[in-house]
Design a protein that fits this description.
single chain; 473 residues; alpha+beta; Cytochrome p450; three-stranded antiparallel beta sheet; iron ion binding; monooxygenase; transmembrane helix; heme binding; Cyt_P450_sf
């Protein structure tokens, strides 16, 4: 009994110290309403293993529709909500905020950093800056890749669907999008090599937002192993690419640029740094696109009138082209209703729930103070299904984006906004529209289990892979 009494007393003292230090560290500022949750874990478990929109929605109702505080993934965090919150965040990037990757992401994608080195020696521009400069993701660059994108999509549909009556959409979408991403970012088109990587990328994607417990059986442990396997493969690809460049091969992909680019002192990036940056780009260009394709197939399959309109639009484009002629930029501009369908899919099932920022300097918002060093969480779930902004918000209705029915400003921002708007927006748009164009020309489909459970937290996924019954045209 004495042992337990001493242990209880020590625990009570520790909690008191933590409580007092918390009070002192925030300097008496008027913090947003909310709770930091449990010691150490905060509210991470509710954040990670509940529905993100429920986590945010419940706290908006309980504390404030504008802002609340929480502690997730080890960080004191302010969640700024609604269209006014979106506008404030996008308008004050670099003034109050800078990008922040949660600690699991830092660990998975920053293996090359020397933890003992001063910060100045380890800081390089992140991968999004590296690809913005040469303009790989600008329309004029993507135009050159569109025909290849069309060709690869046709090949993948032929391989995975041609002789089948039933297909699981999610594995198909992942294989197609990873094949496209590997071709675009790495310049490789080796189906067998790419197929080996799909499971690894799944584990990394899930591990980007998780509790960092690195023991066998945990999400973080699997993500670490997967990241190591991807990194090993990418280093091999990098060395092959270097040999090809030395032999005079043209440099038409992002990997080639990263190999030859140098910092102000003339130093090029080490192979492992390039590998980590490419892994980050591939993950971003793979998971969100595959998720959107998957749920688009679900909603279109469940809404025959939507399917007929999409098919009519795409057949009209196909009829204007010669046999076997690949898609061109002008064709994509004619896919207006198909793009509405994609937008509505992303509204109901956001492929990315949100991102974090770090507070550079203390600021006030909605009457509350957010201290320097806190994190801010930006999420689409405060507006996407809010009936205040979207009529019949739970209904799948692509026509709501037609002229005159557009949602109010800052209520629908699936790619973020401001200086940190997703640089891959146009790449994602083209890859999904190319898939839609090819799939509706060849097939009609029926969703086998319309009520299939959706798993996942930050990255939604159908539990059974969304099996569909295919009907060949």
């Amino acid at each position: 009994m004495e042992f337990f009494a001493v242990a209880f007393s020590l625990a009570l003292i520790a909690l008191t110290v933590v409580f007092i230090s918390r009070r002192r560290s925030d300097g008496g500022a008027k913090l947003p309403p909310g709770t930091f949750g449990w010691p150490i874990f905060g509210e991470s478990i509710e954040f990670l293993f509940g529905k993100p929109e429920k986590f945010v929605g419940d706290r908006m109702k309980k504390y404030s529709p504008d802002i609340f505080k929480t502690k997730v993934l080890g960080e004191k965090t302010a969640v700024i909500c609604g269209p006014n919150g979106h506008k404030f965040l996008f308008s004050n990037e670099h003034k109050y905020f800078t990008a922040f990757r949660p600690h699991p992401m830092q660990h998975l994608f920053r293996s090359y950093k020397d933890k003992s080195a001063p910060p100045a020696e380890t800081q390089r521009p992140d991968e999004t800056k590296a690809i913005r400069q040469p303009g790989f993701l600008k329309p004029e660059a993507l135009i050159r890749f569109l025909a290849k994108m069309d060709s690869i999509t046709q090949q993948q549909l032929q391989v995975h669907c041609a002789d089948k009556n039933e297909v699981e959409v999610y594995p198909l979408a992942k294989t197609v999008t990873l094949t496209l991403a590997c071709q675009f970012f790495l310049g490789i088109n080796n189906p067998e090599r790419i197929a080996r990587l799909v499971k690894y990328f799944d584990d990394v994607t899930v591990g980007m937002h998780c509790i960092m417990i690195n023991i066998p059986g945990t999400i973080f442990y699997r993500a670490n192993k997967a990241a190591a396997a991807i990194r090993k493969e990418l280093v091999t690809v990098i060395r092959e690419k270097k040999q090809a460049i030395a032999s005079g091969s043209p440099m038409r992909d992002i990997l080639s640029h990263m190999i030859v680019v140098t910092d102000p002192s003339g130093q090029s990036m080490p192979d492992y740094e390039i590998a980590d940056k490419m892994m980050g780009l591939l993950t971003a260009g793979y998971s969100t696109v595959a998720t959107t394709i998957t749920f688009l197939m679900k909603y279109v399959g469940l809404n025959p009138e939507v399917y007929e309109r999409v098919r009519a639009e795409q057949l009209e484009i196909a009829a204007s082209k010669k046999p076997d002629e690949l898609l061109e930029w002008e064709d994509v501009g004619k896919m207006k209703y198909s793009w509405n369908v994609i937008c509505e899919t992303m509204r109901l099932v956001p492929p990315l729930q949100g991102t974090f920022r770090e507070v550079l300097t203390e600021f006030n918002y909605a009457g509350y103070t957010i201290p320097k060093g806190w994190k801010v969480y930006w999420t689409v779930s405060t507006t996407n299904t809010n009936p205040k902004y979207f009529k019949d918000s739970e209904k799948f209705n692509p026509s709501r984006y037609d002229e005159g029915e557009a949602p109010p400003p800052y209520t629908y921002v699936p790619f973020g906004g401001g200086p940190r708007m997703c640089p891959g927006k146009e790449y994602a748009r083209l890859s999904i529209l190319t898939f839609v164009h090819n799939v509706v020309k060849r097939y009609k489909w029926e969703v086998i289990d319309p009520k299939e459970k959706v798993e996942g937290d930050m990255m939604p996924a159908p539990q059974k892979g969304l099996p569909i019954r295919l009907y060949h045209h």
